[in-house]
Design a protein that fits this description.
With 286 residues, the protein is an alpha/beta fold. It is built from 7 helices and 12 strands. Helix content is 36%, strand content 18%. The strands form 3 sheets. An 8-stranded mixed sheet has the order 1-2-4-3-5-6-11-12, sandwiched between helices. A two-stranded antiparallel ribbon has the order 7-8.
């Protein structure tokens, strides 16, 4: 089993609005590479966020080891941040991405050779990829996006969650369940509120303010239709897109004790963001 090195440094802290603090973990760079972008990691939410935690943590460790200051954080009403589960909304989580970007720039500026106006790259997984694109596309200094198993629409996210909960109910012998129209009222113990459902039903990637100057890596399996739709939309918006079908297992749907960290995919993301080569995927740039 691969683990972080004993010399790794992690700085846990709270930031943002004093009344509604967000929790983050800053991974300072292990080597001085001011030519590399600082990196913000946008995780999924709900049960997917829990099961993806270890992979995101290991990705942050590898990026920091390569020389990129890296921040991972919990959105409002998730993880160790303020707020109850039922208070989470897409609008608030998009706002949190912006707050986290500002905090990352501030902390990265304290590293040797870096300034407050340095470049930032964003890695987003699942719904985190949607939030990253929606909140950060078009922002000055944010020019690279690694979108890992992204979703082209919020409805696709709801459909997946509904299928996961339906399978769980069958396995547990649960016949009746509270519903919000066609959607379950909770997924794996996490509530789906009418407000969040409404936001997800209306969201799609075309909302993101792409300028055409960005570069994106879309990591999704060859049979992942959502990843293909995301790559197609980005190309339509003149974003330089590279695809990789070797996106690893769907660990966010695995039971916590069975979750596999896709180290090959992590290395691919690190190589793409740092320009260190290796791990080329089966797709290509366009």
């Amino acid at each position: 089993m691969q683990t972080a090195t004993p010399t790794e440094s992690i700085e846990p802290f709270f930031f943002g609005d004093k009344a509604e603090r967000l929790f983050g973990c800053f991974h300072p760079p292990a080597v001085v590479r001011p030519d590399l972008s600082a990196v913000l990691i946008c995780a999924p939410v709900g049960y997917e966020g829990i099961r993806a935690h270890r992979a995101c943590r290991q990705l942050a460790a590898q990026l920091a080891a390569a020389g990129s200051p890296t921040l991972r954080f919990d959105y409002f009403a998730t993880g160790d941040s303020a707020g109850d589960d039922a208070q989470g909304t897409l609008a608030r989580w998009r706002q949190d991405v912006g707050v986290a970007l500002a905090e990352l720039r501030l902390r990265a500026a304290g590293e040797p050779g870096r300034s407050a106006n340095g470049r930032v790259a964003v890695v987003g997984l699942r719904l985190g990829a949607c939030l990253a694109a929606d909140a950060a596309a078009g922002l000055a200094g944010v020019d690279r996006f690694a979108l890992w198993h992204p979703l082209a629409t919020g409805k696709a996210c709801l459909e997946h969650w509904a299928a996961v909960q339906q399978e769980y109910n069958r396995a547990m012998g649960h016949a009746d369940e509270a519903m919000l129209g066609p959607w379950p009222a909770e997924v794996q113990g996490f509530p789906l509120t009418p407000g969040l459902v409404g936001e997800l039903e209306q969201w799609d990637l075309s909302r993101a303010a792409w300028t055409g100057k960005e570069r994106a890596l879309v990591l999704a399996g060859a049979d992942d239709k959502e990843g293909g739709r995301v790559a197609e939309e980005l190309r339509r918006r003149n974003v330089s897109v590279e695809t990789d079908a070797q996106a690893g297992p769907r660990f966010w749907d695995q039971e916590p004790l069975d979750t596999v960290v896709p180290f090959q995919t992590l290395r691919r993301i690190v190589a793409w963001l740092t320009g260190s080569g290796g791990g080329a995927g089966s797709g290509g740039a366009a």
